[in-house]
Amino acid sequence: MNGPDEARSQALEAMRDRAIEQVLPAVATFGWTTRALAAVGWSDAEARSCFPGGAVEMIEAFCARADRRMEAAAPGLPAELRTGERLRALVAARLADHRTHRPAARRAFAVLGLPANRGAAARTLFATADAAWGAVGDRSTDMNWYTKRATLAGIYGATLLVWLGTDDPDDERALAFFDRRVATTARLGRLRRRIQTGLSLERWTRPS
Q1: Of 100, 120, 140, 185, which residue is least crowded by CB atoms under 10 Å?
Q2: Contact 56, 120 (CB under 8 A)
C-alpha cells in the first residue's frame, strides 16, 4: 500500500472507531442503523460516507475495533504464559470488552447470524482468530497458518454463542466451554496424528 492510500485507510479506520465508540450506547435502542448514529449526532450523509455498506459494515467495524483492542492487551500478558494460555487470555479480554456493551454485541451477532450475512460472519471470526494468533507471535506459514486460524475461529465462534446466552459477570461459563473445546480439539489432533502414523506404517509394513 502506498503512502496516500495508507493515510486514507488510517483516516477511515479512525473515523469508524470514533463512530463505533459513540454509537454503542444507542445501538441497544436503535440497533445497528443510521438512526443510532443520528441519535449521537451524526448526519445521514456522514453515516453513509463512513459506512456505505450499512449495518453489516458497521458491525464489521465494531469487530475490527475489538480485534485491535484485543491485540493491544497482548503486551501486558505475563511473559511466562504458554501460547495456549496467551490465546485464552486474549479471548477472555475480547469477551470482557464485549461485556461492557453486551446489548450492542448481542444485536451485532444476531445480524451476522442471518443467512445473508454468513460471509461477513466468517470474515469477522477468521479476522479475530488471525489477530489473536498474530498477537501471540505466531509465524507459521502455508497450511499450518490456515489450520490454526480456522480451528481457533471455530472454537471462538462456538464460545461466543455460549457467551451470548449467558449473563455471567466474569464470563466463567463461556471460558469453561472454550477450555473444553480446546481440550477436545487437542485430543482429536493427537488421535488424527496417531491414525496417520499408523496408516503410514501399515503401508510400509504390509506384505507384498
Answers
A1: 100
A2: yes
Residues in the chain: 208
Amino acid identity for residue 131 in this structure: A
Residue 89 has which C-alpha cell? 487470555
Domain-located, residue 28 = no
| Pair 98, 126: CB distance under 8 Å | no
98: cell is: 464485549
Query: Quick check: helix, strand or coil at residue 176?
Result: helix
CB 96 within 8 A of CB 70: no
Q: Please check whether residue 97 lies inside any domain of the structure.
A: yes
Strand runs labelled E in 98-172: none
Q: From residue 158, how far is each of 39, 125, 180, 182 by CA, in Å?
A: 33, 10, 11, 11
CB-based contact 5:15 (threshold 8 Å): no
Contact 182, 84 (CB under 8 A): yes
Residue 191 pLDDT > 60? no
**How far, CA to CA in Å, does 80 sit from each of 20, 40, 83, 86, 92?**
34, 43, 10, 9, 18
- Parent domain of 142: 78-205
Q: Does residue 125 lie in a domain region?
A: yes
Of the chain, the percentage scoring pLDDT greater than 90 comes to 81
Number of domains in the chain: 1
In a domain, 10, yes or no: no
